[in-house]
């Protein structure tokens, strides 16, 4: 399978979760033996048009992120590459139209990867029209899928492919010391740790400990909030932590609490569930976290700090685990296989086999 990934801006231009996911899929396809190239604006030094970094192959369409030049050159570049499938990002919108022209020239069908964090004007005509170009729009969650449908995508033309994790890494990391509650999110205005702290404050008379993973502009404010509630002696802020450190904490934790206001896909919750944590999710209108645990027994969904406190107590009914096989289906290899199946379906349905 030969797949052309189209994204004028990569993670080297803009650090976003959607860009990271897009390049990770390209990398994992190559690891699975497929041919995948990201067509983008050049971000590396030197003359070569093709450059490899961190397992991803990049092909420069333009020297800088110049939308007009990028869109003008893209169709011809894609036609020469002759991909089986084109997989594009929606921002900037005009690259989708250019990729569609390239797909026509190359006789390739197209999938659009819509993560939810794109910098798009949802009221703009171009944003609405671009959804008519791909044969399928891929989203990470039902919440994002609903947003895409509200913009004009048809139900039959949308698919959910979740985020993925390295399950073998979960199994290889040693658990850290046991804690009752773990939480992870950048410590910004969307973290909503206050809801967790209010719940923990309801349990002052009980014996518990909590670990907060993450860093950001509001860390001092959250630390002060814990002090004001007189729970700071049992709440430990450990900073951002790398992946192995996070997994070690999750494997030592009994429950993971998710309260953030915005999550297009709750990736940290997924990692924690794979590490055996009980999932406790506070419902938020702009978060898809509740979807992940909807049919999962070892979990609780809450709407208030008091319910959250009750869930932390009730989590004691479940055994302590350091790994949960339920979540192996989200391993990188299995989710990559879902993309491959989608590509094969596109080729068959649109007559490009």
Features:
353 residues; alpha/beta; Rossmann fold; 21% strand
CATH third-level topology of the largest domain: Rossmann fold
Which range best describes the helical content: under 10%, 10-25%, 25-40%, 40-55%, 55-70% or over 70%? 25-40%
Q: What strand line-up does the widest sheet have?
A: 3-4-2-1-5-6-7-8
Tell me the number of structural domains.
2
- Order of SSEs, N→C? EHEEEHEHEHEHEHEHEHEHEEHEEHEHH
> What Rg, in angstroms, do the CA atoms define?
22 Å
Structural overview:
The strands form three sheets. Strands 3-4-2-1-5-6-7-8 form an eight-stranded mixed sheet. A six-stranded parallel sheet has the order 11-10-9-12-14-16, with helices on both faces. It contains 13 helices and 16 strands. It folds into two domains: 181 residues, Rossmann fold (3-Layer(aba) Sandwich); 163 residues, Glycogen Phosphorylase B (Rossmann fold, 3-Layer(aba) Sandwich). The relative contact order is 0.12. Helix 2 packs parallel to helix 3 and helix 7 packs across helix 12. The model has no long low-confidence stretch (mean pLDDT 95). By secondary structure, it is α/β, with parallel strands linked by helices.
Helices and strands in order:
Layout: E1 2-6, H1 17-31, E2 35-41, E3 50-53, E4 56-62, H2 67-81, E5 85-88, H3 93-106, E6 109-113, H4 125-130, E7 136-139, H5 142-150, E8 158-160, H6 167-172, E9 179-184, H7 193-201, E10 210-213, H8 219-228, E11 235-239, H9 243-252, E12 253-258, E13 262-263, H10 267-274, E14 278-282, E15 286-287, H11 289-292, E16 299-302, H12 305-314, H13 332-349
Parallel strand pairs: 1-2, 1-5, 2-4, 5-6, 6-7, 7-8, 9-10, 9-12, 10-11, 12-14, 13-15, 14-16
Antiparallel strand pairs: 3-4
Helix pairs in contact: 2-3, 7-12
């Amino acid at each position: 399978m030969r797949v052309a990934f189209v994204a004028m801006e990569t993670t080297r231009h803009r650090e976003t979760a959607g860009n990271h996911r897009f390049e990770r899929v390209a990398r994992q396809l190559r690891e699975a033996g497929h041919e995948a190239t990201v067509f983008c604006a050049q971000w590396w030094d030197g003359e070569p048009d093709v450059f490899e970094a961190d397992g991803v192959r990049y092909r420069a369409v333009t020297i800088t992120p110049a939308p007009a030049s990028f869109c003008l050159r893209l169709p011809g570049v894609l036609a020469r590459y002759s991909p089986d499938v084109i997989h594009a990002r929606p921002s900037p919108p005009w690259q989708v139209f250019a990729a569609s022209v390239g797909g026509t020239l190359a006789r390739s069908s197209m999938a659009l990867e819509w993560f939810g964090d794109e910098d798009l004007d949802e009221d703009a005509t171009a944003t609405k029209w671009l959804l008519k170009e791909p044969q399928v729009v891929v989203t990470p969650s039902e919440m994002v899928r609903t947003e895409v449908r509200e913009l004009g995508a048809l139900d039959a033309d949308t698919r959910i492919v979740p985020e993925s994790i390295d399950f073998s890494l979960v199994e290889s990391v040693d658990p850290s010391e046991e804690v009752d509650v773990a939480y992870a999110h950048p410590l910004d205005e969307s973290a909503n740790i206050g809801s967790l702290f209010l719940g923990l404050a309801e349990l002052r008379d009980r014996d518990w400990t909590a670990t907060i993973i993450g860093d950001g502009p509001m860390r001092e404010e959250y630390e002060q909030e814990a002090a004001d509630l007189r729970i700071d002696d049992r709440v430990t802020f450990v900073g951002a932590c790398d992946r192995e450190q996070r997994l070690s904490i999750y494997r030592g934790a009994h429950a993971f609490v998710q309260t953030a206001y915005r999550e297009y896909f709750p990736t940290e919750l997924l990692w924690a569930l794979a590490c055996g944590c009980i999932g406790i999710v506070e419902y938020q209108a702009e978060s898809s976290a509740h979807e992940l645990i909807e049919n999962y027994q070892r979990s609780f969904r809450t709407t208030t700090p008091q319910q959250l406190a009750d869930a932390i107590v009730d989590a004691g009914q479940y055994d302590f685990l350091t790994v949960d096989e339920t979540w192996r289906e989200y391993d990188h290899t299995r989710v990559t296989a879902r993309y491959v199946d989608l590509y094969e379906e596109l080729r068959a349905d649109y007559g490009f086999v």
